[in-house]
Design goal:
The protein is mainly alpha-helical. Helices cover 77% and strands 0% of the residues. The chain is built from ten helices and no strands.
Length: 264
């Protein structure tokens, strides 16, 4: 794999897109980065990454992109400490276990897990949920056992594909836990950060990280994630929800198209 300016710019551009969406929608960036890294460099002829390599790169990048998004939300009132504690502890354990498990899986298996997670997220985004702008600063009631169990399961799947899990966390927080949209998006960044710690450690321990493209993605995430988060704080919450649903649907459609094409 030759290293040249085109290669760097393609990876950096993918990182910018993923990180901006991460800050804007609170999804960690992997929901965008994973398919882009898997398909775009190969289509342009600049690189060909395996599913293990892509999951390793996204695992490290999510760690940095969520930091950028969190810095933009740190002074607001949307971060819910109880939700972060309940779901953060569960997802940290799950993501570490999933990351270790992924080292023994095939590429098709990793892609199938990603496709299943994205499909579940799309379905959940279609469920109706309460939307009350006046409740954005209210203290929501959250069942700690339910929140912890759901986050552990999400963490397992996210750890396998190198994601932070926020693309599934946000729909769960909106539809099952009934959190206000802006609270779900902001808190998911903190929970995803904790998830990325477990995933990153396990990916590093199992040798699934290649460093040059990872460092390029990190640089892009530090630039674009705070910009996305600042814009997200100003946008209508319904627009944010639909934008998230469309992103997840497109990813799920692409992943399943390629999986079905492989089997046919």
């Amino acid at each position: 794999m030759s290293i040249d300016f085109t290669y760097i710019m393609v990876i950096f551009s993918i990182g910018l897109i993923g990180a901006f969406v991460s800050g804007l929608l609170g999804v960690g960036g992997s929901v965008i980065n994973y398919p882009l890294l898997l398909f775009v460099p190969a289509a342009l002829g600049v690189a060909s990454f395996s599913a293990h390599q892509v999951s390793g790169m996204t695992a490290i990048t999510v760690f940095f992109s969520t930091i950028g998004g969190l810095l933009a939300y740190r002074k607001g009132s949307c971060l819910n400490r109880k939700v972060i504690l309940y779901m953060g502890s569960g997802i940290l354990a799950g993501s570490f276990a999933g990351g270790l498990l992924s080292s023994g899986m095939t590429e098709q298996g990793i892609n199938m897990i990603y496709g299943l997670l994205a499909l579940v997220a799309v379905v959940m985004m279609m469920f109706p949920h309460a939307h009350n702008p006046d409740s954005e600063h209210a203290e929501p009631h959250v069942n700690p056992v339910l929140a912890g169990t759901l986050s552990f399961l999400i963490g397992m799947g996210a750890g396998i594909v190198g994601a932070g899990g926020a693309f599934l966390l946000v729909p769960v927080m909106l539809t099952v836990l009934k959190l206000p949209t802006r609270t779900a998006i902001a808190s998911s960044l903190a929970i995803t950060f904790l998830s990325s710690v477990g995933t990153a450690v396990s990916k590093l321990a199992t040798g699934q990280v290649i460093w040059l493209p990872t460092l390029v993605l990190i640089a892009a995430s530090l630039v674009a994630s705070p910009l996305g988060a600042k814009l997200g704080q100003r946008m209508n919450t319904k627009v944010l929800e639909w934008a998230l649903a469309v992103c997840i649907f497109l990813v799920a459609a692409k992943i399943w198209y390629d999986l079905l094409w492989t089997f046919l």
